[in-house]
């Protein structure tokens, strides 16, 4: 018996075809609108507001020009080290600035970015961005997910306010002082290793590697109470992921770019998963113990876990999920060691280059400590060291840029920045701008910070190594303390000079790093 007549079946097939056609048209029109029409509308609006920039192509935006190979002259070692690094690390920005000025639009794929190297404009943006108008760019949240997840550095809105409020007490003076001993111990162990090498006649070493490992150990112990062995595992995997995600040019902002490099995306995802599992194990065992760290003070993980204790929670508060806990740990593990290690590494390089400053710092340490072991009160008196610290953060800012995204239309002075527009604040560009700092902008002159916390910069927003506004770096006091401890201990034990094998070629790999390491020659002091 026939259930459907032939004509009914034909009508059903036709209907199905129309449905499919409708579905595909709808899907493609959505994609077209999302990745083409909306960006074009944003571009028109920005141009109407007076922002120009290099013309983008679809779907790469300006990536082709950004990734164009430039003949970077690997600088001659040591004798010709120049601190004029902006056009080396951001050649495309240096080029575009000549044509379009210090504020212009460029495109990462189909994502509009407002490039900013004008502190006055940044000031206006910053004061217009109170509340929740500015957040972190979705394109980076997605791209850097395996690295930071929804940790403090990436999260926005109420979640950011909530998490920052919980985390801030971990950086109180009491907690920082309690970390002092651990920082000294880790560093002393590292330096004992250096002394052993020297007793075997080995005087040259790549200090970047050593300092980075030490900084990772310090953050693992002080913030999470993690054993050296577990800390090392997390550290190695994070390093592998960083190199995978940021070492080569990628199609950030290009629609479906992850599908275009499936192997890389899969590897990054796998590494992210392995780190998450390791951290989850650590979190669970801390939960079983007690939310207090072993030495009685509340470290970062202790605070996060205590916050999750039902007995201490307010009725309106939400519990932090395991996902959030893992993401915060990842964020702090990475953010907490890499930048500090780089600041120290660049410092050692420059102290090798300017022995008069090495001598001045050594004398200051001697004067402040009177030959006694360092303590936290002494650190505050190391003022010349603080000038050097600031000058390093100016010339070789470990965080070379800061980004934001307009979460709604934002009025900045006379212009409206449309919702969805990203901002790229070129920290290196501002720190090397002669109109802000004078003709000696590319010289190493720590004394410029002697009488001014801004180093004599003509605009207070021209020096922003730790970002600005409410989202200023939460770890800035911790990092300065670690910097002073590690540097003091090194300078008291060794003299530093630069190895003739050193090649000066700073590169951006998320942070600003020496691409070929920093081989130094060390000698024990009498
Ligand atoms: C020389 C060392 C450091 C530099 C140059 C540095 C730089 C920065 C910058 C520029 C920002 C602002 C990012 C933005 O606004 O988008 C930031 C935020 C942050 N930093 Fe640091 N940082 C350093 C050390 C540290 C340390 C030691 C930690 C942790 C122990 C840390 C944790 C964070 C976190 C969690 C944020 C996000 C804060 C928020 O959005 O509320 N940083 N850092």
Automatic annotation (TrEMBL):
Its main location: membrane. It comes from the Eukaryota. GO terms for molecular function: heme binding; iron ion binding; monooxygenase activity; oxidoreductase activity, acting on paired donors, with incorporation or reduction of molecular oxygen. Keywords: Heme, Iron, Membrane, Metal-binding, Monooxygenase, Oxidoreductase, Transmembrane, Transmembrane helix. The keyword Transmembrane helix applies. Its cofactor is heme. One of its GO terms (biological process) is lipid metabolic process. The keyword Phosphoprotein does not apply. Heme binds at residue 473. One of its GO terms (cellular component) is membrane. Pfam families: p450. It is found in: Membrane. PROSITE patterns: CYTOCHROME_P450. The chain crosses the membrane at residues 20-42. Belongs to the cytochrome P450 family. This is Cytochrome P450. It comes from Dendrobium chrysotoxum (Orchid).
């Amino acid at each position: 018996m026939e259930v459907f007549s032939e004509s009914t079946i034909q009508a059903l097939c036709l209907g199905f075809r129309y449905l499919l056609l409708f579905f595909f048209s709808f899907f493609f029109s959505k994609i077209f609108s999302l990745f083409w029409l909306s960006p074009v509308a944003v571009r028109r609006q920005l141009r109407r507001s007076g922002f120009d920039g290099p013309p983008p192509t679809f779907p790469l935006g300006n990536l082709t020009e950004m990734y164009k190979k430039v003949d970077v002259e690997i600088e001659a070692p040591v004798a010709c080290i120049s601190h004029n690094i902006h056009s080396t690390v951001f050649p495309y920005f240096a080029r575009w600035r000549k044509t379009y000025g210090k504020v212009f639009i460029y495109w990462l794929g189909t994502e509009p970015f407002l490039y900013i190297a004008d502190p006055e404009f940044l000031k206006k943006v910053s004061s217009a961005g109170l509340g929740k108008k500015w957040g972190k760019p979705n394109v980076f949240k997605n791209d850097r997910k395996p690295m930071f997840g929804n940790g403090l550095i990436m999260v926005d809105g109420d979640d950011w306010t909530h998490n920052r409020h919980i985390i801030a007490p971990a950086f109180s003076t009491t907690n920082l002082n309690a970390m002092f001993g651990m920082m000294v111990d880790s560093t002393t162990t590292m330096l004992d290793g250096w002394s052993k090498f020297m007793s075997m006649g080995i005087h040259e070493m790549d200090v970047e590697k050593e300092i980075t490992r030490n900084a990772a150990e310090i953050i693992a112990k002080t913030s999470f109470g993690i054993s050296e062995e577990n800390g090392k595992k997390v550290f190695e995997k994070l390093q592998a992921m960083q190199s995978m995600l940021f070492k080569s040019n990628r199609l950030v902002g290009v629609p479906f770019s992850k599908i275009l490099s499936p192997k890389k995306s899969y590897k990054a995802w796998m590494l992210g998963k392995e780190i998450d599992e390791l951290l989850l194990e650590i979190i669970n065992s801390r939960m079983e113990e007690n939310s207090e760290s072993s030495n009685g003070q509340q470290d970062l993980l202790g605070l996060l876990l205590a916050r999750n204790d039902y007995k201490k929670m307010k009725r309106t508060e939400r519990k932090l999920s395991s996902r959030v806990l893992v993401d915060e740990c990842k964020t702090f593990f990475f953010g907490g060691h890499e930048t500090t290690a780089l600041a120290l590494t660049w410092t050692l390089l420059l102290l090798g280059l300017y022995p008069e400053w090495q001598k001045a710092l050594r004398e200051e340490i001697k004067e402040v400590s009177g030959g006694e072991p360092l303590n936290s009160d002494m650190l505050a008196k190391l003022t010349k060291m603080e000038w050097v610290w600031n000058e390093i953060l100016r010339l070789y800012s470990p965080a070379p840029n800061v980004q934001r995204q307009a979460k709604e239309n934002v009025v900045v002075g006379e212009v409206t920045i449309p919702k969805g527009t990203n901002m790229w604040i070129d920290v290196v560009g501002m720190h090397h701008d002669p109109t802000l700092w004078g003709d000696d902008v590319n010289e190493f002159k720590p004394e410029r910070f002697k009488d001014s916390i801004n180093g004599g910069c003509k605009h207070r927003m021209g020096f922003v190594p730790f970002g600005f506004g409410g989202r200023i770096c939460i770890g800035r006091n911790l990092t300065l303390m670690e910097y002073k401890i590690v540097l003091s201990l090194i300078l008291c034990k060794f003299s530093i000079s630069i190895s003739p094998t050193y090649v000066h070629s700073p590169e951006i790999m998320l942070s600003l790093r020496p691409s070929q390491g920093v081989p130094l020659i060390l000698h024990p002091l009498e």
